[in-house]
Structure formats: structure tokens, C-alpha cells
Amino acid sequence: MIDNRPMRVDSAVLRQVEMPLKFRFRTSFGETGVKKFLLLELRADGLSGWGECVAEEGPFYSPETLSTASPILTSFLLPLVLGKRVSSPEEFERLAMRIRGNRMAKAAVECALRDLFAKAAGVPLGKSLGGSRETIEVGVSLGISPTPKDTVENVRKHVAEGYRRIKLKIEPGSDADRLAAVRDAFPDITLTVDANAAYTLAQADTLRALDAFRLDYMEQPLHHEDMVAHAELAKTLRTPICLDESIRSAADAKAAIQLGACKVINVKIGRVGGHGEAIRIHDAARAAGVPVWCGGMLEAGVGRAHNVAIATLPGFSKPGDTSSSSRYFEEDIVAPALEAVEGLMPVPKGPGIGVAIRTDVLGRVTTAIQELRA
Ligand code: OSB
Ligand code: MG
């Protein structure tokens, strides 16, 4: 880890950003064509630290939204650091502990602080988190396509680009037919599915039928608050279960592992409240022999760079969802763009997140801006 001096946080800039996506992304919980997010810049000692809040417009993946995260940040989280000498990102985590939930809002501040402290120490963020990889293995998460044929064509394109794992979004009624078509066309690819909690235990037969497709894992089949149901389902499935929505903390991860509710964990920095909690989940999973991988929230450059950094830790041993920025956006707000080659994303070597903000692009995609001081 890094040995650092306290930093004085002079101001914060909270921007709302809207970036059109190159594709419509359909999941079991909704569909989106525009990435809308809050971007936080913390200024301290002549440096800027950046954090992307992954809360979405509606409370469908997570209870947090753009319009809840914004006042939580301005009324409760930013006052913990504005005008203060902050001794470390961990100090912020301790101060923020009395604020319950609101993990995506917390993560935005924690990420900006991690970037600041790593920049002040002159080290890449991944290294400051305890990581050492120079490239990250990545796959893609593909939204639900209208037909099995469209699904196969979409998979074909991404397999040709060299992605190391294909994850298909599924929902009841859009699962076995598409998977059968994909498996038939690509007998050997690493294939997974993500249901975003769309099934119930009453549909266990439907889920068991997916065992035939030799999936590496099945992500979040059941309700996000029902770990016991996942443990029950796991007993009757050959396919390992990976949890996403159900894991909000290291305590959740330990409970899920002990219960037998999952054999793989999707770690998202925003969902768990920051890099610190992501590391604790990584450590608990690693101690139990459970592989983790870094999930995605269709992030723009800042969030994507944070994902790359956390995925440099050794327990991130399966390909994540951090695919090339150019898959999602015509132009990104950072340079150099985060682009994978043959399914390998290079880890930026510069200090902090290792990418620079393109202020011209950022200006064009910013729809609201709020500057806060102590
Ligand atoms: O469940 O992993 C998910 C995107 C938004 C909300 C939830 C999820 C996703 C993805 C996209 O799967 C991953 C990405 O490409 O960033
Ligand atoms: Mg998921």
C-alpha cells in the first residue's frame, strides 16, 4: 500500500453527464440507450481525483438512482471531506460508516480519494490497491437480442474481436432457445448468463435445463435479497452460481459462501461502496477459494479506469465485463481510451487512474454542474 501524507480537499465538482450508447442495452429489468451518470471531481493540493457514480436513472438494478445519489453526496458525504485534511481513503470509509446504504454515492467519493492519494504518491491506482497485473482479461456482457439468430450474430462479432468470455443477458422466455443457438455455433467459447434476478425457485426446472449449455456460471438467477433460495437452487444445478446484486459487502460475501449460495462473485466497486470493500470481498473470497471478477455498469472512462485498477488484484481470476470503451461510446471523456486487444485490456501505467480527462469532450456531455466548497 502507499505511505501518504494527509490531503486537504478544497472543493468538489459534481457533474451530471449524458453519453449516447452505440447500442440499446436490454436486460431483464429494463432497457437503456443513453448512459447518464454523476461524475465527481475532488480537488486537493493542486491535484484532481475522479470518481464515477454508477447509480442509474431508475431504481431497477439497485435502489440508488441519479436523483437519490446527488443529495446524499451533497448533504452527507461531501461534507465529510470538504475543507478537511483527509489522512487516507480509509479514513473517509470510517467517517462514512454511519451513513447506511447509498453505496454507489459512497463509492464515488472513495474512488476520487483513491485516485487523489495514488496521484500524490505517484503510483498507479492498481498498485496502490495491492494489484500487480499489467493486463486484464475481459469479456463482454451482451443485452437480450430479439431472436436467437440476432444473438448468434452479436456473439460472432465479439468472439471475432477476441473477447475472452461471452455473457448473455437472459430472462424467462428468452433463454434456452438463444443459448442453444449460440452453443451450437460456438461449441468451445467460455459462455455465461446473467438473469438479473428474473427467476424464482418455482422456475428451477427452466434453470436446470441451462446445465446442458456448459455455462461457466449463471449470474444472479433469483431475488437479490434471497441468499437461501440461491443455496437451495445450487444443490440441484450443475452450473455454478455467481452472485452480483446479492453481494453488497464482505459480510454478504462471507454469508453467501458459507451458505453455499455461490461459487463465483461479481465485484462491482459501486455496488459495494468503494475499492476498500471490493478488496475485502476479494480477500474473503480468495481465502475461501472463490474466484471473483470485475462487473460493469456501462461505465465511461473514469469508472472504467477504476474497474481496470481493481481487476489487477490476483483473485480477479475470471474475465470481467470491462470491455473496450469504443464498444459503448463514439468518444470517451478520457485519454488514452481504454481499449482491449484480443480480450486483454492494458493497465494504464501513469499515477492514479492513469488516464487524463478530455475537458473538451466532458464539456460537451455535461448537462449540469455544481461546485461545492467547505
Ligand atoms: O448485471 O452486470 C449487470 C449493466 C448495468 C447494470 C447491471 C449489469 C450490467 C451489465 C453491463 O451487465 C456490463 C458492462 O458492459 O458494463
Ligand atoms: Mg449482473
Strand portion: 15-25%
Low confidence ranges: none
pLDDT averaged residue by residue: 97
Question: In terms of structural class, how would the helical and strand content be classed?
Answer: alpha/beta
- Identify the overall geometry: globular
The radius of gyration computed from the alpha-carbon positions, rounded to a whole number of angstroms, is 20 Å
Widest beta sheet: strand line-up: 6-7-8-9-10-11-12
Number of helices: 14
Quote the distance from N terminus to C terminus.
29 Å
Task: Note the run of SSEs as H and E.
Answer: EEEHEHHHEEHEHEHEHEHEHHEHHEEEHE
Count of DSSP E strands?
Answer: 16
Strand count, sense and closure of the main sheet? 7 strands, parallel
The level of helicity is 25-40%
Give a structural overview:
This protein is an alpha/beta fold and 374 residues long. 35% of the residues lie in helices and 23% in strands. The protein contains 14 helices and 16 strands. The strands form four sheets. It has a seven-stranded parallel beta sheet with strand order 6-7-8-9-10-11-12. Strands 1, 2, 3, 4 and 16 form a five-stranded antiparallel beta sheet that branches. A two-stranded antiparallel ribbon has the order 5-14. Strand 9, helix 8 and strand 10 form a beta-alpha-beta unit. Helix 1 crosses helix 3. It is globular and about 55 Å long. The protein starts with 6 loop residues before the first strand and ends with a strand. The model has no long low-confidence stretch (mean pLDDT 97). It binds 2-succinylbenzoate and magnesium ion (MG). 2-succinylbenzoate binds next to loops.
